[in-house]
Amino acid sequence: MEELQGVLALKDSRIAELETSLSSVKISGEEIEGLFRLKIEAEIEYLAISKATQKLKDGASIQQTLLEEQEKLSETQAQVLDKLVDAEGKASVLKNKAEELEKYCGDSVVVQESFVLQKRVCKLTFYLFLQIIFLVFFFWLFLLQLSPNSGMVVPT
After folding, report:
1. How confident is the model over 14-63, as pLDDT tens digits?
2. Would you state the torsion angle of the CA atoms of residues 39, 45, 47, 50, taken in this order, to the nearest 10 degrees?
3. What is d(CA 84, CA 94) in angstroms, rounded to the nearest whole number?
4. CA 128, 134, 136 angle in degrees (round to 5)?
5. pTM of whole model > 0.70?
6. CA-to-CA distance for 16 and 134, rounded, in angstroms?
7. Which of 5, 27, 55, 66 sits CB 3.0–4.6 Å from 31 for a disulfide?
8. Which H or E run contains 34?
9. Does residue 10 belong to any structural domain of this protein?
10. Measuring CA to CA, how many Å separate 131 from each of 120, 127, 155?
């Protein structure tokens, strides 16, 4: 841009020089025509250079905007990466807790099965106890019937 501005300043000084030389010297028609051509060429170059500088300025602003957007995207990516790391940590903790719960569930199934077995054993013990009581009772009745009653005689 500085080079272009330097070139423009040079062209402007050339135009000014040509205008001063025109006013101080009487020149023929062909020379004037040549000077007009030079002036027109200088103005055309000035317009081309000014358009080029404007395009460069626009390009620079677009690049600046793109750089800012890239910075924002990189910040967003960093945040997403941080969240991903946090999520992985939480997932690991949840996995460990799930394994512990599975272990406890397995333990609770074992405890539940032991309660069922204990209940069955209690039932069987109760039934066995009742049978023993009935056996003793029936054995006692049997012995009572076998023993002679010494106190009572029944006539036949």
Report:
1. 888 877 776 766 556 677 788 788 889 999 989 999 999 999 999 999 99
2. -130
3. 15
4. 105
5. no
6. 141
7. 27
8. helix 29-146
9. yes
10. 16, 6, 37
Residues 6+ apart with CB under 8 A from 11: 42, 45, 46, 49
User: Which tokens in the block code for residue 127?
Assistant: 């039934």
Cβ-based neighbours of 56, under 8 Å, separated by 6 or more: 1, 4
CA-nearest of 4, 21, 15 to 39 is 15
The structure tokens listed for 134 are 């009935």
Residues 6 or more apart whose CB falls under 8 angstroms from that of 5 comprise 53
Q: Which residues contact 12 (CB under 8 A, 6 or more apart)?
A: 46
By the 8 A CB rule, do 27 and 58 touch?
Answer: no
Name the residue range of residue 39's domain: 2-146
Q: In the chain, how many domains are there? A: 1
**86 in any annotated domain:** yes
Residue 108 belongs to some domain of the structure: yes
DSSP state, residue 25: S
Higher-confidence residue of 143 and 31: namely 143
